[in-house]
Structures are given as C-alpha cells and as structure tokens.
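Example (one chain per record):
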Amino acid sequence: MKVLALEGSPRKGGNSSILLDWVLEGAGEGGGEVIRLRVAELDIHPCTGCDSCLDTGECVIRDDMDRVIDLVLSSHHLVVATPVYFYHVPAQLKALIDRFQPLWVRKAVLGISPRKRGNLVLVACGGARGEGLFQCMLRTFEVLSSCLGLDVFHFHLLVGGVDGRGEVEGIGDLKERARKLGLDLVST
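Predicted structure:
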C-alpha cells in the first residue's frame, strides 16, 4: 500500500508537519510504504494558463511536477498536510494544485478517467476557530480528488485554534487520533 504525503507548509517543523509525522507513523505501522515530499523544496513553477494541456492532457512546463504527477498516479493514497493561510493553502501548495490542470483536462475534456485507486486525506491546522476555517480548502480537495482518481477519505484531521509552533503536541489525544487515521487509511 503506497502512500504519498505532500507536506504543504513552507515552515519546517510546524504544526501541520507534526500532524503529518503522526499520521505517517500510523500508516507505516500498518505496513504502508510512505513517500514524503516537502512542497516548498520542489521546483514547481505556477501554471501560466497557456492552455496547451487542452489538446494533449500534458503540461508543457518541465519541472518537479512531472515527478509529483507520476507519484500521485502510482500511489494508492494521497495525504496532504497544510496550515491554513487566509482560509486556504500556502502559495507553494496552491501552485502545485494548479498544475494538476492537465489531469482535469484528461478527465473533463478528453474523456480519460483516472484509474480509481484509494483515498485523499487532508491534514490541516490553523490559528482561527470556527466552522468556516477549512471550507475553501475542503472544496478544492473534493474537486481535486476526482481528477486524481481518489476518493475523499471518510474523515480528515482538521485542527483549529493552534497558531504557535508545536501547539498540537499539547492537545490531549490528538497524536493517537492522527496515528489511527494513518493506520485506518492503509487498512482500507
């Protein structure tokens, strides 16, 4: 069971990274083969809107996104960990998401449906509290999952009210819940 994890925070060792550590710990304990990529360390250029992908389902930009797409399409599950920046994902992760446009084209324009494989899980945290904190990113990942041939897992790990580095470590049973999420993911 191959699990690709995209660490979306530009800051190393932050709350979303800690949560991802725990989720991947559980996935590893369950026998999952984990590949982790830090998005901020990848060479991914933003989509230029050139529309070249409309004809071929391929992007003309050659960078690390080629590897990301290959890994996504060859993995059973995708875990995306991110902090909330202005009620959405950080710019580096948003550029990566935008570059999945060729996969949307394959499905919606060219009629090439992706092979169904597994699940997409969102692991996110932010400083604010309230229902709306994760709504924008949840909708984005719902749409993205269908382009990638993934289902949205039955629950995500969404933690509000954490702003300072490492604050997630002081939240009761959060570590166990995160590890269980990883274990459950590879058990499905």
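Caption: The mean pLDDT is 95.
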